[in-house]
Specification:
Layout: E1 6-9, H1 16-25, E2 30-34, E3 47-50, E4 68-71, H2 83-104, E5 108-112, H3 122-138, E6 142-145, E7 149-151, H4 162-170, H5 175-180, E8 183-185, H6 186-198, E9 205-208, H7 210-215
Parallel strand pairs: 1-2, 1-4, 2-3, 4-5, 5-6, 6-9, 7-8
């Protein structure tokens, strides 16, 4: 039985490249949206779709009917000073992708949101929460992953916080928050994304918080 097609936005990014490699290793047909000039950053077996992540009309026709759409576009190195960029890029891109997925009759949307509520990065959280609402409004079954910070190459400074997280998980008053805002690895995120692609909900939205991301097995 042939695997269902997967359409990936943000395929040249930190999570996207690892996910596409893993999907191809499992024989999923993969199409990936890419900006002009960035085609070489995708694995050679992925079919390239040249387009603009902020313009759904530039790629909607390239999404196969019945495909899973994995949305990974976002502001690089997010920090509290990038509020305008969160609105333009993070929210603008999921608005475009949700509309394109509807137009293409996609069967499933996978969206990497962010853990919330949270005491910092309010503009980032707000953009991602609004992105979740846009997905819900499509009526397409969806899986929403909510990591807080993803450790991996070039993204390792929060390792210094691991002893603090261990203490906060130990204390009853902070245990839930420490679990919800815990750190996950790039490998764990890839596994969680693979599981989301392989096991879509029949209807509605499946939310995967940090503990579920850590437990995921593709």
């Amino acid at each position: 039985m042939l695997a269902a097609p997967v359409f990936v936005t943000g395929g040249t990014g930190y999570l996207g490249r690892a996910l596409i490699d893993a999907l191809l290793a499992r024989d999923y047909p993969v199409r990936a949206l890419v900006r002009p000039g960035s085609e070489a950053r995708l694995p050679s077996r992925a079919e390239r779709v040249i387009g603009d992540a902020l313009d759904g009309g530039s790629f909607a026709a390239a999404i196969p009917a019945g495909a899973t759409v994995v949305h990974l576009v976002g502001t690089s190195q997010p920090n509290p000073s990038k509020g305008a960029e969160f609105q333009r890029v993070d929210l603008g891109s999921i608005r475009a992708t949700a509309a394109a997925a509807q137009h293409a009759a996609a069967s499933h949307i996978v969206y990497v949101s962010v853990a919330h509520p949270a005491p910092v990065m309010q503009a980032y959280v707000a953009a991602r929460v609004e992105g979740e609402a846009l997905i819900a409004a499509t009526g397409i079954p969806a899986t929403i992953l909510r990591p807080w910070y993803v450790l991996g190459p070039g993204h390792r400074w929060p390792v210094l916080l691991l002893p603090l997280y261990a203490l906060l998980r130990y204390l009853p008053v902070t245990h839930e928050t420490a679990e919800r805002l815990g750190l996950v690895t790039q490998a764990q995120m890839t596994a969680a994304l693979l599981k989301a692609v392989a096991d879509p909900p029949a209807a509605g939205i499946c939310i995967v918080e940090v503990p579920g991301i850590r437990r995921a097995r593709p």
